[in-house]
């Protein structure tokens, strides 16, 4: 069941009161921020899903981490996708070496990050790190 904007905002407020590490992805500003409780520790411009393949919204957690992986879909097959952190089904935060259009929604739903930034985020996070995706 999808969370309402109010429920997502309440979860964000709870994370900010904690000491927990968590990711916040703002689809409107195309920005990912890594937080430790209420303190932002790293922020980058990203590319999320385009209109026809939007990024899911809600509160998730990192479920699988791969230094590199192959990603396939109906109209793409990309080898060696670096620093991949799956957070919901086929949705992931990962490095993107095949474009430099960060700040513009261009993906099939994933959160594309420049490779060097993706490596930092991957090394900072753990399995179970919360991922908040909101407008």
TrEMBL record:
The keyword Zinc-finger does not apply. Keywords: Cell shape, Cell wall biogenesis/degradation, Peptidoglycan synthesis, Transferase. Pathway: Cell wall biogenesis; peptidoglycan biosynthesis. InterPro entries: LD-transpeptidase, LD_TPept_cat_dom, Transpep_catalytic_dom. Residues 21-134 form the L,D-TPase catalytic domain. The active site is at 94 (proton donor/acceptor), 110 (nucleophile). It comes from the Bacteria. This is L,D-transpeptidase.
């Amino acid at each position: 069941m999808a969370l309402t904007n109010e429920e997502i905002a309440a979860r964000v407020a709870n994370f900010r009161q904690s000491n927990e590490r968590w990711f916040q992805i703002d689809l409107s500003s195309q920005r990912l921020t890594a937080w430790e409780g209420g303190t932002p520790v790293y922020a980058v411009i990203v590319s999320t899903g385009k209109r026809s393949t939007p990024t899911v919204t809600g509160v998730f957690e990192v479920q699988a981490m791969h230094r590199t992986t192959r990603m396939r879909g109906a109209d793409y097959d990309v080898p060696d996708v670096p620093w991949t952190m799956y957070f919901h089904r086929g949705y992931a935060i990962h490095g993107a070496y095949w474009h430099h259009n960060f700040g513009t929604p261009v993906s099939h739903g994933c959160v594309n990050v420049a490779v060097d930034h993706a490596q930092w985020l991957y090394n900072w996070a753990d399995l179970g790190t919360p991922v908040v995706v909101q407008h």
